[in-house]
Design brief:
The complex is a heterodimer of chains A (284) and B (124).
Chain A: H1 8-11, H2 13-42, H3 47-55, H4 59-74, H5 77-101, H6 106-134, H7 140-167, H8 170-189, H9 219-249, H10 254-268, H11 271-281
Helix pairs in contact in A: 2-3, 2-6, 2-7, 2-8, 4-6, 5-6, 5-8, 7-8, 7-11
Chain B: H1 2-17, H2 21-48, H3 55-110
Classes of the chains: A mainly alpha (284), B mainly alpha (124).
Chain lengths: 284, 124
């Protein structure tokens, strides 16, 4: 196996199961970023109400990140992923049934967006914990890159799939979200019990009340965290400005706009081979 | 990580100055690639420095901060675009990323992973 140059996640059944779970779950989450705002607008909601429907999927991260993270470190990851994804299937199916029966109120859509967002926090936590078990320490960088690529594929492909699915009707689009979550749950169940390895009882355990503060305590982590925050602020601006710049300044619309955005997503898929090569030659 | 941030500066600056649709498209694709490289490098580097017992918490906590940063960046980008136009805002993004790479270099070089391989630094 030492001569196997494939990505560490592609080498094992568990790694492949994680990639399938990640891509299918990200597809469902990516679809929700379009379906909920779309339905809000269709029911006569304002642009700000539609934006709130998008933003509300991120609120669970602020509320649940710490308990979910601790659960991802202390609990068995397969059952955790399975429970979170099954809950997601139930939520998506319930929304699909409600949408099939008629127009639900905005609060139902907000609640659905929040709950599906909460599913993501727990799936992500279990995924981070499982990755650390599967990938050797010195190969965690390319493994993380592959997992992020699977996420990008699903999350950025999701809106396109949702756009097609909405042509079939809102209820059917939600059934497709439920189907993607079922696929993710099946992927998780195909992994072995290795994912469920518990942390040794004498290992350091964080306390909930310390929250996110531990990311700033050591000099090494503080440097990475502050750099990450600066990068994410700049990145948020760069990504959000792309469509206004293309549309308003360069008058790019329709298929040309989709082609430019699609080329960007396609280019993102090169990240894993680049990181793998760089990681073999340079320090991170 | 420093390299990824520095590499991000080039397409961001290109978005600020290149005219025409084709040029912008050619700058936008590497911008998204640099974005993916930065994100994955950040997560991988953090995972190497965190004990096994805190991997999930560190991952989700880091993602929460990044998501908050993305939301704040989108809001600030909108304000910058109102004041300077989208090209001016992209110039500001390039400057911020260049400053980030320069400012973070000493601290990140001290934290480089060669000597860390196979073990983790305690989180406190």
């Amino acid at each position: 196996m030492k001569n196997d140059r494939r990505n560490p996640l592609l080498r094992s059944r568990d790694g492949r199961a994680l990639l399938i779970t990640q891509a299918a779950h990200a597809l469902a989450q990516g679809m929700m970023t379009v379906i909920i705002p779309w339905l809000i607008l269709e029911q006569g909601g304002s642009l700000s109400q539609a934006a709130l429907g998008f933003a509300i999927t991120f609120v669970p991260f602020l509320l649940l990140a710490v308990p979910a993270g601790i659960a991802g470190d202390r609990l068995a990851r397969r059952p955790m992923m399975g429970a979170a994804l099954t809950t997601g299937v139930v939520i998506a199916a319930t929304l699909a049934l409600v949408l099939g029966a008629g127009n639900p109120g905005l609060w139902v859509l907000y609640a659905g967006a929040f709950l599906i967002g909460a599913v993501r926090v727990f799936v992500d936590a279990a995924m981070f914990g499982a990755l650390a078990v599967i990938a050797p320490r010195d190969e965690i960088m390319p493994a993380q890159a592959a997992l992020a690529q699977a996420f990008n594929l699903g999350y950025f492909g999701g809106p396109a799939v949702a756009g097609l699915a909405l042509v079939l009707g809102a209820g059917n689009a939600m059934w497709m979200v439920a189907g993607a979550l079922v696929l993710a749950a099946v992927g998780a169940t195909t992994a072995s019990a290795r994912l469920d390895v518990r942390v040794a009882s004498d290992a350091p355990r964080p306390r909930v009340r310390r929250g996110l503060a531990f990311l700033f305590l050591s000099r090494n982590l503080r440097a990475l965290t502050i750099t990450g925050i600066c990068w994410s602020v700049a990145s948020g601006a760069a990504i959000s400005l792309a469509v206004p710049h293309l549309r308003n300044d360069l008058h790019v619309t329709g298929a040309a706009l989709a082609a430019v955005l699609g080329a960007g997503v396609a280019c993102m898929m090169l990240a894993t081979p680049i990181i793998t090569r760089l990681d073999r030659r340079h320090a991170d | 990580m420093v390299l990824a941030c520095a590499a991000y500066v080039v397409p961001a600056a290109a978005m600020a100055v290149i005219p025409g649709v084709l040029g912008t498209a050619l700058a936008y694709a590497p911008l998204m690639l640099a974005n993916a490289v930065c994100a994955a490098t950040l997560m991988g580097a953090r995972a190497r420095r965190v004990p096994q017992s805190m991997q999930a918490l560190a991952g989700v906590a880091g993602r929460t901060l990044v998501m908050a940063g993305l939301a704040a960046g989108a809001a600030l980008g909108g304000v910058a675009a109102d004041l300077l136009g989208p090209r001016g805002a992209y110039a500001v993004v390039a400057i911020v990323l260049a400053l980030t790479a320069v400012a973070a270099r000493p601290a990140l070089l001290r934290a480089r992973d060669r000597r860390l391989r196979g073990r983790a630094i305690p989180a406190n």
